[in-house]
Each structure stands twice: as structure tokens, then as C-alpha cells.
Amino acid sequence: MYTYNYPRPAVTVDAIVMTESHEILLIQRGKDPFMGKWALPGGFADLDETLEAACRRELLEETGISVDHLEQYRVFDAIDRDPRHRTLTLAFYTMIPQKLQPLAGDDAALAEWFHIGHLPPLAFDHDLIISGFLHDFLPKISNRTGTGTK
How does 29-48 read in b/e, with b if 16+ C-beta sit within 10 Å? Predict the structure, then answer.
């Protein structure tokens, strides 16, 4: 594998999973940074997977929930969005008809559903990701049915 003489950003993915009743799935971080704060399910992409596959994997590892389809929302690239290093994230979303029972795993201490009007304190820039998504997409997708879950 080729190595570069200059720094490279880390690449992560985050999953926005919402129900038709406007509940969003969040995990409580079990590790630093932001241990104890809530976040979108997500994490680092592996070198041998697509970003959508990484997002599906992270969602399953952290919540026990599997989805068939995710759609890209947008990239978040603020310089200081992660205190550990330079990190770029691609957020994906899916709408499901009703909430499924999450089971926290991997580095998630808890996994729970929250109504979008009553969110807990969020880690990283996830407040910006969620508020941007709600502004950009919620009116367009509120009338759609689920996009496929297992």
C-alpha cells in the first residue's frame, strides 16, 4: 500500500434514522471524546468498504438495527469537528415507518429513540447535522413510507 508524506483526513459516516412520527435514533457514546453525550450512530470507514456499507455496518454494530437502503445527505468537513484529528463525515439517512428496538453495542453505551423536538446534548457537530437535515429534507420525506429495514 502506498503511504503519503503528508497528513490525510480520517473518513467517517453517520446514520440519520428517523421514524414517520419524527423520532430519531441516537447512541450514547461509551468512549471519549464526548463520552456520555449522545450522537448519531456512525464511525470510521474501513479501507475495503464503500461509505454506504460502512454506514450500514456502524449502524448495525452500535444499535443492532439493519437497513436495506440509505441515501446520502451531505459531507460535513469543518476543520475542528473532531478533537482527535481532521475528520470528514458523510451523513446518510433513511426513514422507517416505526421505531425498532435498538440494542446498544460496540462503543455505544446506550441506543435510544428521541423525538426531534426534544434532543439531548449532542457530541461533535451532530446538532448541525440533524438541524440541517431537518431543514433540508424533513418536508420532502415526511410523506414517504419506509425505505426498507430488516
Answer: beeeebeebbbbbbbebeee
C-alpha cell at 79: 476543520
**Whole-angstrom distance, CA of residue 43 vs CA of residue 51:** 10
Q: Are 11 and 3 in contact (CB under 8 A)?
A: no
Q: Can the peptide bond before residue 41 be classed as cis, meaning omega within 30 degrees of 0?
A: no
| pLDDT per residue as tens digits for the range 28-82 | 999 999 999 999 999 999 999 999 999 999 999 999 999 988 999 999 999 988 8
Q: Which CATH class is domain 10-141?
A: alpha beta
Alpha-helical (H) ranges within 12-123 are 51-63
How far is 30 from 105, CA to CA, in rounded Å?
Answer: 10
Type of residue numbered 109: A
If one counts every other C-beta atom within 10 angstroms of the C-beta of residue 125, the result is 17
Q: Could you tell me what percentage of the chain is helix, strand and coil, using 3-state DSSP and rounding each to the nearest 5?
A: 20, 35, 50
Query: Taking the domains of the chain in order of start, what are their residue ranges?
Result: 10-141
